[in-house]
Design a protein that fits this description.
The protein is an alpha+beta fold and 95 residues long. The protein contains 2 helices and 4 strands. The chain has one domain: Aminopeptidase (3-Layer(aba) Sandwich). A 4-stranded antiparallel β-sheet has the order 1-2-3-4, with helices on both faces. The radius of gyration is 13 Å and the shape is globular.
């Protein structure tokens, strides 16, 4: 997947993130609890193509809402979902 960048989510991403989660059959309940601070988005150009959340509860983190657009499903070599998960879980504090 060329030219994709992962960056912190912004409040203006909310509607697109909700739509992406719905398309991926993931729940949106509780999304606003820690959005956008706990989330990153993946963009290819101006298009938002992925999202991942890491909600923090004390020293514990809950990986949440990892989703990519359907056109990127099955990309084993570039694996955008894995990139999003690594980006979020690397933010966890060491125990």
């Amino acid at each position: 997947m060329s030219h994709a960048q992962i960056a912190p989510a912004a409040a203006g991403d909310l509607d697109v993130v909700r739509e992406l989660l719905a398309q991926s059959e993931l729940p949106t309940t509780g999304l606003l609890d820690q959005f956008p601070a706990a989330y990153v988005v993946m963009r290819r150009g101006l298009e938002l193509v992925g999202v991942a959340g890491l909600e923090m509860y004390g020293r514990a983190g809950l990986l949440r809402s990892v989703a990519v657009v359907r056109t990127l499903h099955g990309r084993r070599r570039s694996n955008p979902g894995a990139h999003l998960m690594v980006t979020r879980t690397s933010a966890l504090p060491l125990l």
